Amino acid sequence: xxxxNVASCLIHGDLSYTHILYQDTISGIIDFGDACIGDxxxxxxxxxxxxxxxxxxxxxxxxxxxxxxxxxVTFYDQMQRYYRYHTVxxxxxxxxxxxxxxxxxxxxxxxxxxxxxxxxNPLKRIVFFCI
Length: 131
What we know:
The chain is mainly alpha-helical and 131 residues long. The chain folds into two domains: 7-72, no CATH class; 84-131, no CATH class. 52% of the residues lie in helices and 10% in strands. The protein is built from four helices and four strands, in the order E-E-E-E-H-H-H-H. A hairpin with a 3-residue loop joins strand 2 and strand 3 (26-29). Helix 1 (40-51) crosses helix 3 (75-97). The N and C termini lie far apart (33 Å).
């Protein structure tokens, strides 16, 4: 995949439904332990994963309209073609670190499905040995 030339910004780094406090309206965001300067498409992918495409398009439009948010024609492509792999791989590495065999199997299956969907060929089973 070709590298994008994107303006980085401060991102939460782990913005998912588990870190958004919500009761009738958003009342807070918690857990800034992974905050960093990064690609906003990463942050939006986590929202895409949890809330769907329509929600992410509304949030993107809100930021683009109300804040100096860079317009990027490859933004959605970046979310869908790169960060979906990154997220599954990150979760796989975490499962390996925790030696969670059930979650390892789940994440390997997810990764295989992603790869299969994009290359159109069956893959050899990926085997991980957890010591």
